[in-house]
Amino acid sequence: MKRVVITGQGTINSLGTSVAQTQEAMREGRCGIGPLEMRDVDRLSIQIGGQVKGYDPEAVFNRQQIVLYDRFTQFTLLSAREAIAQSGLTFVGDLAARSGVVLGNSGGGMNTLDDNYRTVYEDGKNRVHPFVVPKLMNNAAASHVSMEFNLKGPTFTVATACASSNHAMGQAFMFIRSGMAEVMVTGGSESMLCFGGVKAWEGLRVMSKDACRPFSANRNGMVQGEGAAVFVFEEYEHAKARRADIIAEVIGFAMTSDAADIVMPSKQNAARTMTLAMQDARINPEEVGYINAHGTGTAANDKTECAAVADAFGHHANDLMISSTKSMHGHLIGGTGAVELLACTMALRDGIIAPTIGYEEADPECALDVVPNVAREVEVDVVLSNAFAFGGLNAVLALRRI
Fold this sequence. Notes:
The chain is α/β, with parallel strands linked by helices. The protein is built from 14 helices and 14 strands. Helix 11 packs across helix 12.
């Protein structure tokens, strides 16, 4: 089997408009969650989120592009530009044919939907723009990335709610490992912070009105975020031959289904997915130093995930560091695993473990080292990134320092 490495990464999210800004915010434990700025915010019960503030699409895209690009597509393209620029790759000839795009996304063009429902139902108009469908479709971002960078290999979008990005990156990993592709541009994006998007999530009654406090006894729900993160996955020998700067190695992946409940997580299957990812990576539990947790800040998720870690790692669970960066950037739903992978690459490359901020009270049902409030400097060789989605869909990635 081929080895797979990361040679580029890019992002825009509530913590920053680049990887450097985002990882600096993670090191400092800075919070990107704040008051929402949107139309009809006064009609919302939830008025906070990890929103990308001060963003001006006209500064980075022309008018013709803005007509075609929903906000989630714009975020994806900006992230892809940063990642591919860092990789130093140019996709022409055979490399273009052997390179593709797999992205995770859950809501699609939610801003486009929201705007056009208003046009039809609120404003009473009988026509919408002819590009509404290609603008709102889930695969729009993947298609536009492939077109901008001439990527002619496998290209598609994975939609598995909160596990979308991890599923996408797992597929990209397997494409390269099997020899079906040389390079894959992968990650995920989401922008559901519009009136309709937030109002829909309010109905689930899992949202916090004030802050995201994963693992803290006084946690009271999740907070939505928006943005994207994109990575260049590359076959190791190809990267080595061109003397690429290698960020980390992807060494394992696993995915399972609870086949049980549409919203409640399963401890047994979360543990099974972590175990299968370690088996796929051919590592022992004792080799893992850090887990980027799913850690949504809801009562059910956090205690279930901690119990799953205890089951999967046994006595080593007490020596692990586990943190949730959702406390800083919010839950990006389909894009969240991609932004969280930046905490994993920071841990491996820089020896900095991102903290779980907002932690105020110990919870005996979350009695692990959750790296509360302050980042930690410590070298780790292997990390896991967890994603456990509505629908009972689980996806775990394993990465190694190189």
